[in-house]
Amino acid sequence: MPITPPPTPRIAVYSGTFDPFTLGHDDVVRRAAGLFDQLVIAVAVAHHKKTLFSLDARVEQVQAATENIAGVKVLPFDGLIMDFCAAQAACAVVRGIRNLTDFDYEAQMAAMNRKLRPQVETVFLLPDAPLQCISSTLVREISKLGGDVSQMVSPAVAAALEAAHRPRLQA
């Protein structure tokens, strides 16, 4: 009887700056983790953006938010996502889309990524409907202005946002 090699684990990468990690991100992670053997959350250095939180702080926030989700690991990354996928032996990239604007941008990125690494598929996931309006940009702005973001981020992230904006709010 021939010996069958064990199946190759299906690894996906979910990348972003996660500045901050929202409940919408969390929802996409939970959905993706159920579809793949392993989900690597790639926290981007983000040279093109001025982030509120350092790379280390963002990695820690994502690790804390996802520590109880089986098959998830969190890594920082810099460079092309397709190079990161190759290094992780990933078969897919997961992208969360909230609306048509996101879809237009993500479809263009998926087509370009396919040119760079055709063996990696792009999988689009919609967050749960009540979470689709949440964006990291809006969360940062609401928090900066002293608004309540408790329905948009985890308690730990809400506390980190409050601490980051406290000097400004006390002035």
List keywords for this structure.
171 residues; five-stranded parallel beta sheet; 43% helix; alpha/beta; globular
Write the layout of secondary structure elements.
Elements: E1 11-16, H1 23-33, E2 38-44, H2 55-66, E3 72-77, H3 81-88, E4 92-96, H4 100-116, E5 121-125, H5 136-144, H6 155-170
Parallel strand pairs: 1-2, 1-4, 2-3, 4-5
Tell me the number of strands: 5
Helix content: 40-55%
Mean pLDDT: 93
Report the C-alpha radius of gyration, rounded. 17 Å
- Shape descriptor reads globular
Task: Work out the helix count.
Answer: 6
Question: Can you put this structure into words, describing what you see?
Answer:
With 171 residues, the protein is of the alpha/beta class. Helices cover 43% and strands 17% of the residues. A 5-stranded parallel sheet has the order 3-2-1-4-5, sandwiched between helices. Strand 4 (92-96), helix 4 and strand 5 (121-125) form a beta-alpha-beta unit. The model has no long low-confidence stretch (mean pLDDT 93).
